[in-house]
Amino acid sequence: MLKAKSYIRYLLLTAVMLLAGCSAKIDDYQGTQPHFDIFSYFQGDSRAWGMVQDHSGKQTRRFAVVIHGEVVADTLTLHEDFTYNDGEKQTRIWHIRRLADGSYKGTAGDIIGVAVGREQGNAFNWHYVMDVTSGGSSYRLTFDDWLFMQDDEHVFNVTSLKKFGVEVAKVTLFFDKK
With 70 as the cut, is the pLDDT of residue 14 above it? Predict the structure, then answer.
C-alpha cells in the first residue's frame, strides 16, 4: 500500500511539473511587435466585450466594459464599469504601479492582496487572486491573465481561472481603444 501511494504521489508530481513546464512565459514574447505599454494603451477611454466559459468550454456569461484610465507619474488608475447579459452591473477600480525594475503591482477593491505583472513585447501577464461568486457560492480563484496587443487600437485578453491549480473557467475579452 505504501508503494502504491508513493507511486501515485510521484505520478501526480510529475504531471504537475509537466503542466507547469508547458505554460507560456512572458519572456517568450520578447521582441514581438507592437510593443504593449499598458499605461499608454489604457490612458483615456476604451471599451471591451467578453465572455466567461466554464471548465467544459460552455459560455456562461457575456459582458461589456466601459473603461477610463488615468496615468499620474508611475500609477495607472483604471475605472472599469461592467454590464453583464443578465443585467448585473459591477465596478472595479484598479491602481497599477510601474516599478523601477519594469514589473507592475496592482490593487483593486475585490482583489485579494496584490496583483503582480510583467510586460514583454506585445504581451502583458498579470497574476492575482479574487473571490468569485457563482450559483450563490463564493470561490477563491487564482487568475492568470494574459493581454496581447494586436495593433494600436485592439488588445486581446485570455484569463485562466484556477482552483487548486486546476482551470475551472476561462474569460476572454476584446478591447477597443477609441
Answer: no
